[in-house]
Amino acid sequence: MRRFPDEFIWGAATASYQIEGAVHEDGRGPSIWDVFSHTPGKVVDGHTGDVACDHYHRYREDVAIMADLGLQAYRFSVAWPRVQPGGSGPANPAGLDFYDRLVDELLARGIAPIATLYHWDLPAELDWRDRATADRFAEYAALVYGRLGDRVGTWTTLNEPWVSAFVGYGSGRHAPGIADPAAAFTAAHHLLRAHALGVRALRAGGAREVSLTLNLSPMIGDPSVTTLIDGLANRLFLDPALRGGYPEDVLAHIAKFTDLDEPLFEPIDLLGINYYTVNRLAADPASPGHLEYPGSEGIAWLPPHGEPTEMGWEVIPSGLYDLLMRLTRDYPGTPLMITENGCAYPDTIQNGQVPDPARIAYLEGHFQAAHQAITDGAPLRGYLVWSLLDNFEWARGYHKRFGLIHVGYDSLERLPKSSAHWYREVIARNGLASN
Ligand code: IFM
Predict the structure, then answer these.
(1) Which residue ranges make up each domain of the chain?
(2) Which of 53, 144, 165, 428 could make an SS bond with 188 (beta carbons 3.0 to 4.6 A apart)?
(3) Among residues 20, 292, 314, 340, which one is catalytic?
(4) Nearest to 42, CA basis, from 52, 32, 28
């Protein structure tokens, strides 16, 4: 039996564009993901977030499901174009009303809301290559805080700015679909500026706990190749948020592509960690490198060990343990929360049930790793599984199912998978039956 600390928080996470649907309702404006997903060839099979899980209309049912699982926290994101269509000017009250209702419903069920202000659905009128987008973000943050700040205790500015910058502007696999290394660095710089200005806006409003969520991935290989990739993937975001400055080696690398203007940093109260897998790297002079890591020519990404998830990602819980211990060692003093961890498998309904033993095994292994890290001193406060619902997995459309809850995309019916029932027991005993 592995018991977690009494105050440990168990929950699940989602994001607005991936579940809400209702893209034309109540004055919502277009986001870069509406434009991108409606552009032929960008998303597998032309899937879009137009309907998604229809959470906008079914949020009460979804909160009831969360309560039935015993979730203690729910991490959702606010759609900027719903709250402030066009990305500037006054708030759209009807857009804020939706999150108001959601937060009240959560609180009525005893579930703590954790709000992320930006999970990739930028108003289509804005662009992270523009420095002014950071100022717009701070204004938007103040609008959302003004409405929900009395009831939401934990605020996250950005989700995975690495993905926004390097997949949105480096490879162009995500919206807005720009493939330009210099633009990727400029976007990253402006996202970090937006984060800092957002932190200031939230604190000015009186926010209790402000955080940033990063997708972090340990690098496995020789330091001659891992240092650069670790710098671009991890330290480029960790150091500004937790040490108040860019790492020198990464700055020198960026200077080969573009000039950055004056940076802005603000400390946070909590670091959100999204962990899925590791990167296995090796030197290979013939390798063209990776578009999402500008300047990585000569570095090869090696195949995963063992049976990967449906995303092709290696299942390696020890990577989570190593990551938590590294953060504890290299960035002491900041509490940690796992804001996403989970896996996609091709789940199907069989006799009215959705057996997903591979997901249970995945989560159990990662919960064990987290427990070990806590035992060894990591200040880990909670664990939010990705995801509550099967949902729109960005450029992969609805083909990848990450949910604890199966969603039938024709009927929109929700059906808890075996992993949801298993998770309910983990939460109830605040631990694992296994060792
Ligand atoms: O679905 C995404 C989520 O939006 C951000 N983190 C990774 C998840 C799985 O790819």
Answers:
(1) 2-432
(2) 165
(3) 340
(4) 32
